[in-house]
Structure formats: C-alpha cells, structure tokens
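Hi all, a correction to my earlier message: I attached the wrong file for PEP-CTERM putative exosortase interaction domain-containing protein. Here's the right sequence:
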Amino acid sequence: MVSLRRIFVSALAPMLLLLINSNVKADPVYGTPVPTANFSGSRTESAGNIVTGGNYSSDNKNFTITWNITLNSGVYTYTYTFTGFGSPDLSHFILDLTDNCVDGDKQTKDARCVYNVSDGVGDLDWGTFGPGPSNPGFPSGSSITGVKFDNLDDAGSGFSVTFNSLRAPMWGDFYVKGGSNSFAYNAGLSNHSSDDVNKFIAVPDSRTAVPEPATLLLLGSGLAGIGAGLRRRR
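and the right structure:
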C-alpha cells in the first residue's frame, strides 16, 4: 500500500525542483508587476540603490525616493517623495511608464496613465529621454520612455508629486535633475538585466501579477497526483 507521505513527496517534487532552479539564476525584474495593488516602498543612496552626481553626491549618502500607491474603486493614486537632499532644488523628474502610454491629452478615459497631477508641476512632457545637456549624468546607452514632470515649483527636500492612473504598478526607472549639473537615478537604469528588485522603483504599467504558465502546470500536475494517490489509498 502506498504511504500518504510517498504520495505527497512524488507530487511536490517537480514544484520543489522549479523553486530550487529559480534561485540559481533569477530572471530580470524590470517590467514585472509589483507584489500588491496597495504598495509603499523606498530606495536610498546609502544602500547603493540610487546613483547621484553633482551637488546631490555627498558623504552623507542620504538621498531617498519614497513611493506610496493606493487603489480605490479601480483608480490608482501614485505619490513620489524626494528627501535627504538640499540645494539645488529639483528641476525635473522623469518617470518610466509602460511603452503604450501616450501624451496625456490623447489618453482615452478608460486607459489613462497619468492624470490629475498635483500642484507644483509646471509642464508634462511625453516621450523617450536619455543622455544630453538637459539630463546630466544620465547613463550612456540607457533611456526612459515615459513622462517628464518639468519646471517643478520650489521642489526642495520633501517635494512630492501625486497623480492618478488606471495602470497597475510594475518595476521601472526614474531620473531627476537639480540645478544645472546635479542628478539622481535608480541603479537599475543602466542594467535592465538585473535580478535585484531593489535597483528599481514602482511605476505605472498595465499588467497585473499572474502565476507563470510553467508554475500553474506543475501545480496542477502535483494536485492531480495527490488526488489520484488518495483515491488509490482509499
């Protein structure tokens, strides 16, 4: 008679093998969904998750970006707060978006990426941004497709940008400029193949978290095996 323990071991073995192999070489996290709809977090210079330059680079290494995301009646509210740095004030903030987001004026009501932006932002520019005079220190060979919050009003330490979106959060990039030569960006901006989630921040996308097909197949096979074994035991 087959023991119950043997049934469970044989059914769960494929799933355990998948987990072990996934820990050997993790997949890149850029562009993948964040864990939950209501989600808060932060990234800091001191932990090596933010790269800074110009006057934003100091021995204190206390530059921090914090985000808070809430979901209410199908609408997400995103808030990004910048703390730990002083002069110069922020000039602009570039936020990564899923590539099918378009100019805010062209967004349909049921697919808006960024709208109802808080006070303190002069302009919104949409497109692909990269190295150049207006983005000092931007890593060579990298770019961000998304929105630029420009002409920020008195955006010193503690400045926040809040907006609504119909897009669920994913892992992505940011870049900020202060004055003429000061900057900061997430460490993953120059390495989208990184498997370290701490190198990225939460940004709007259009996807939601679902189990991978391979995981679903193994889980279904395992449960079917358990059920068949129990029937044989009875």
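Sorry for the mix-up. The longest strand covers residues 64-72.
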